[in-house]
Design a protein that fits this description.
About 75% of the residues lie in helices and about 0% in strands.
Length: about 110
């Protein structure tokens, strides 16, 4: 199976895409601040899932999935900051993030059992 067929990767890509769209509306003064940070965290999630799938050992795979999960939590924190300072008003993005978290946690559990 190709990593692009994984639902967990597809959900992470959807989240990443939405982050890029939403962060376009952040103030231009945030280009090298919060905008850069949320995009970097968002890109890291599907990237680490893909890299884990490309690794040869299950330990390496689990490590990259763990990094993806850490990036997801980092992204959530950054979105909370964006919300608190008034850059983000929609709760829809948090719903997408939570769906990505549930999917990723489920996949991590599957890999651990495997």
């Amino acid at each position: 199976m190709d990593y692009k067929d994984l639902i967990v990767w597809q959900h992470a890509m959807t989240l990443c895409e939405q982050i890029y769209r939403v962060s376009d509306d952040f103030p231009s003064r945030e280009m090298y601040g919060l905008t850069h940070q949320v995009r970097k965290s968002a890109v890291s999630i599907p990237s680490n899932i893909a890299e884990g799938e490309g690794r040869l050992t299950s330990g390496e795979r689990r490590q990259f999935l763990s990094q993806a999960r850490g990036s997801l939590f980092e992204l959530e924190t950054q979105l909370i900051i964006a919300e608190r300072v008034g850059y983000l008003r929609s709760k829809k993005l948090f719903e997408i993030l939570n769906e990505s978290r549930r999917t990723l946690d489920g996949y991590i559990g599957f890999v651990r059992r495997g």
